[in-house]
Amino acid sequence: TGVTINKFVELNLVGYYEMAEVFGGIEACVFPWPGGNTPSGYIARNENLTDPVTTGSDGTYGSGSVAVPGIQHLSPAQALAFVRNRHTVPGGDVGRTYRQQAVIDYVLNNLKTGGILSDVSKLNSLLSSAKEYVQFPRNWNLVQFGGEISGLTPSNIKLTTLPTTGAESAPNGVGAVSTVDVPAIQRIVQQAFSAPPEVGITKPASPAKGS
Description:
This protein has 7 helices and 9 strands, in the order E-H-E-E-E-E-H-H-H-H-E-H-E-E-H-E.
C-alpha cells in the first residue's frame, strides 16, 4: 500500500461472539436487499435476511442467520451468525465485511457512551477478556489506547473495505481468491492517510447496520 502501519488489531470471527457477550448482545438495523443487479449476480429479493444451514456432499454450509427488517437485538449467537453470513449477502466474503464493520462501530459507540473507557477496572476486565480472541502488538499499551479512543468522534473514524476486481482459482485447487488492482489499492490507501482528518471522513450511524 505504500503506507506504514504503526498499530493493528486482528479480530477473528469468534471475537464477534465474545464482544456481543460482553455488551449483552448487539443492536442491528437490517435493510431488506431489493435484489436485481448485485455484485454477485444471484442475490434474490430479501434473500439477505436469512442464511439457512444446508448440508451437501462436500460439507455443511450457511451461518444459520435469521434477521428481520428494522432494528433488532441480536444475542451473541445471533450476532456471530449475522457477521458470518456470506452466502446470501451482496459481495459474498467481501460483502459481509460491512456487517462486521457495523458491529465494530456499535461496540465503539457503546464503549464511549457506556462509561467503560473512563473506568479503569471495567476497561481492564474487558481487555483481559479480549486477549483471548484479539491479536495485537506485544508492546501496545491497550489501557492507554482505551483512553485515546475516548477522544474519537464520528468525524474522525472511517470504516472501509478496499475493492476487489474479481476472483480466480487458487493454485492446487484449494479454492478461489479475490483479485485486486494493486495501483488502485495503493492510491486509495495513500489518499486516505494523506488527507486532512476532517476531510471526507465519515462513520456509519449506530445502531449497527447490515446489508
